[in-house]
Amino acid sequence: MAKKLLVEPAAAPESFEQAMAELAQLVSQMEAGQLPLEASVAAYARGSELVRYCAAQLEKVESQVKVLEGDMLRPFAADGAGEGMQ
């Protein structure tokens, strides 16, 4: 009889930074070959969740910036940036 893994749903990250840190840790473990096959599949699934979470957070922030900038995103000025501020 096949043994089933009971995988509890992982909690949502508390922040974008926490999600990125967890994702970096998962990638490091997978690249180092530290995980058995079943754990690698679970890590891949968790990584996918984290990527979706981060993408959603970035989209939300982009929307907020568009509102603050009046839908006119402007590139940062490389020349003269910070002039007049001392």
From TrEMBL:
<keyword id="KW-0378">Hydrolase</keyword>
<keyword id="KW-0540">Nuclease</keyword>
<comment type="subunit">
    <text>Heterooligomer composed of large and small subunits.</text>
</comment>
<keyword id="KW-0269">Exonuclease</keyword>
<comment type="function">
    <text>Bidirectionally degrades single-stranded DNA into large acid-insoluble oligonucleotides, which are then degraded further into small acid-soluble oligonucleotides.</text>
</comment>
<dbReference type="Pfam" id="PF02609">
    <property type="entry name" value="Exonuc_VII_S"/>
</dbReference>
<comment type="similarity">
    <text>Belongs to the XseB family.</text>
</comment>
<protein>
    <recommendedName>
        <fullName>Exodeoxyribonuclease 7 small subunit</fullName>
        <ecNumber>3.1.11.6</ecNumber>
    </recommendedName>
</protein>
<dbReference type="InterPro" id="IPR037004">
    <property type="entry name" value="Exonuc_VII_ssu_sf"/>
</dbReference>
<dbReference type="GO" id="GO:0008855">
    <property type="term" value="F:exodeoxyribonuclease VII activity"/>
</dbReference>
<keyword id="KW-0963">Cytoplasm</keyword>
<dbReference type="InterPro" id="IPR003761">
    <property type="entry name" value="Exonuc_VII_S"/>
</dbReference>
